[in-house]
Amino acid sequence: MNPALLVTVAGPFLGAGGWFSQTMWLFWVGVAICVVTLFLNMASGVMRLPVLPVLFMAIAAWLLNPWYLGLGAGLIAWTALEAVGEVIGLRKERRL
């Protein structure tokens, strides 16, 4: 299993688990992993301008109260979508 994929999947998995179980510390650990994933994507040049993550975060911050929970939930949603894309890409290349 690809270690980068594990890190990408771990953030949304932990964050969603914390959100649905009402365990906020677990939610914020998932958000922190998603932040690290986004930073590494930007630092490595995979993502030059994070327009879509910011859009997801802005919409979720507008919909959820308090706004900072929306930012975290939006980032988790974006990272989950990104993880699905990575899994599909690795399956197409037959590396997963």
Structure at a glance:
With 96 residues, the protein is an all-alpha fold.
Q: Taking all residues together, what is the mean pLDDT? A: 93
Order of helices and strands: HHHH
> What's the count of strands?
0
Rg, Å, rounded: 13 Å
Class by SSE composition:
mainly alpha
What share of residues are in beta strands? Answer: under 5%
> Main sheet, how many strands, which sense, barrel?
none
Q: Outline, from the CA principal axes?
A: globular
Euclidean distance between termini CA atoms: 7 Å
Specify the helix fraction band. over 70%
- Ranges where pLDDT stays below 50 over 5 or more residues in a row are none
Q: How many H/I helical runs?
A: 4
Walk me through what this model shows.
The structure is a single chain. By secondary structure, the chain is mainly alpha-helical. The protein has helices at 3-20, 24-44, 51-63, 67-92. Helix 1 (3-20) packs antiparallel against helix 2 (24-44) and helix 1 packs antiparallel against helix 4. The N and C termini lie close together (7 Å).
